[in-house]
Every structure is written in structure tokens, then in C-alpha cells.
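User: Show me a protein chain along with its predicted structure.
Assistant: Here is one chain, sequence first, then C-alpha cells.
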Amino acid sequence: MTDRTLKPVFNQTNDYCTNYTNGNVDTSQRLRAINRAIEDVHRCLGLTCDETIFPFQYIQDNMFTDLPEDYDEPILLYYDKNDYNLGGQVGWQWNQYTKLLQNSAGNTRGFPMGTYGQKMFSSTNINGKKQLIQLGSNMIQGSIVNPFNTLNLISGTGDATNLAIDNNVFINTGGSISFTIDPTKGYGYAGILTSGFGMMSVQDALQKNGVYKVYSYLQSTAISKIELIMTSSTGNYYTFTATKEDDGTPFELQTWFKTEYPWTLSSITGSPDSTNITSYEIRYTEGVGFGSIAIPYFRIDDLYVVYPDDMNLVYYSQYKGTDSTGTTQKIFLDDLTDLPTFMQFFPDFLNMISLRAAYILMPQLSGDKDFMALYNKDYKEQLHDYGKIYPRKRVINLGQTVLRRP
């Protein structure tokens, strides 16, 4: 059986270096050179074995999606639902992330974004990690459930007191509801309850995996969780729980942030009727450190629902292979028993990668510039020939093929 480990690549690299070695280059140096050579060929050719798919959900009011550690370069962004992949205005076009940020004003909630025209995506490290950035509307548009700019049908529960309309500090629609949390009342939570509106159906949101979101403005971060509770009758309700903001960061102090409540993560008590919701409550649970003194000017604004798009990002991966078991992915191959991905699918690349590794090592091994030039020429000729056989994919924009980088 053909050896598909890193060992043949290592041996071939040694073969190219042996006759021209004046000094001593240890195993670690050779392994580093081989890894650099694989990266070079990967960047020049971009083999199909370097491609992988990242499935995720996109919500238009959250532009940033964290990417896997091995993400290197995008190839294609498309919808998981084939009916949505129709090209034209529903297609996603790559652009520089700065252009997306410049055009992102108003990219909030689940509403139409027709003024933005072409949907755009890019990748960035601007937030200190690898992220996909998108600008474009969801295929199914969301809607406001409650703008929280009036006290009509609103009441406080638990430790919530002094409810009032705040016309100075708000997100949208001209006002928010402010309230005081008074822990001396002893409930351990403060809620904003909406009831008396008759009947509300949430069946459509449930069936389409809708996500509810609400804005909060805290005067203390000693809040352990923020819940959305939807009740159809006594003892029959859905509970959604958030312990972080919708972008995964901890609750912040004195700034507006969103929490999200996916139907897929709701819990059920009793037998709630999704077609007959009679009340809903946003509940703030007091955590350790909240204290025993009433704190005023908590605020709540805009409860709304959005409908995420299931999407797939095809990208070039930085993973070069796995360990000897084939289970642990590795960005750096550091053992001769490792299994390089290219050796499993394109073992004929062994010679070209070994040549590139030897060319990297040559300055340390020999002062013979003629052999260095010869190896460099041989490597580039092979790269050119294989490039015709395996043409490199670029980001695909509405039928065009172009190389794009962040």
C-alpha cells in the first residue's frame, strides 16, 4: 500500500538537499519548510481537497458571524435552500469590508433593505477574530411585535416599579419604557408584561424558526438572565432564555444591546397554544451582586421577530491534514506519521512540494546559487503545468471569477 503520510514528502525533500548540504539542518527545520511549501502550493493552486463548507444562520441585524479557525479565503456564499439561489438581486457579491461598513446604516431589525440593492459579503479581522461580514436583507422579512413606546397594555411584575415612557433615551419609534428594579420586594426578578390585547398567533414564527429580539438598557450588570415568556393560559407557556447579548458578549452597562430568543431553543411548560398567545413578558432576573437598593432607569425597547437564512460558505481551509488517526485536524504538520490532505487526494504533488521545501532550505544548506535557481525554475514549471490541470477557484460574483482578499 502506498505510504500517504508526511514521511515520503520528508524523504523526497532530503533527497533534493542531501548532495548540497554543507551544514546541518535538523528535522524541525525541514518540517517547517515542508509546511511553508504546502502553504505556497495551496495559495497558488487552491486544490479541491483544501475546500470546506461552513454552515451558519444569517440574521440581517447582526452583520458579523464568527468563522472557524481554519478559515483562509472565501470561494462562494449561497443559501441552503436551493430555491433562494436564483442569482440577480438575491445573489451575494464579494466586496471590501470597509464598503460594507460604510453602507450599513439602518441595517437593523428584520425589515426590507431595498435601498441597499446588491447583497454583499466580505471577511475581516477588525474585531480581533476571523469573521464573515454581510450586508443584505433576509429572504423572509421580520416585523415589530411591540415598540415599547406606550404603557398601554403594559404592567410591571415582580420587583419592577415606576414604569414610565422615556422620550429621551430610546432606539426606535420615539420612546422606550423605563422602570425601577426594587429588590426589597423580594421576587428576585423584574418583568415587563404585555397583556389584554386579545389573541396573538406565533405559529408562523415557530414553523419558520423565527428569532425574537429585544433591546435592553441596564443600570446594573448583575442581571443573570433575560427571559421572554409567552403564555396562552395559566400554566401553559413558552420560555426563552438569554444569558448573553446576541453577539455572544456579556451584558453591558448603560448602553443599548440586544438579546435573542430562537424558537429552536425555547422550553415548554404545560401545553401552550401557539395560535392563542394571550400575554408575553420580558423578565430580568437579579443575579449575585445586585444588592438590596432599588435601582432606577432600566429601559426596554423594540421587541421584534426576524427569520434567519440558513447559509453555506465555501472556503479554502488552512488545515493541511490530520494526525495519524485521521481524526484531529492540523494546521501545522509536525509528525512524520501525520496525514497531509494532498497526499490522500493528489499524491502526484509530492515532487513539487518537496522541491519547494528544498528551495526554502537551500540558503541554509548551500551557497550554490546555480542549483537554487535550477530548483526554483523546476518548481515554477511544475506549478504552471498543474495550474492548467487544477485551475484555482476565486470568489464567484454573479458569474464572474475574480480573486478577492479582505
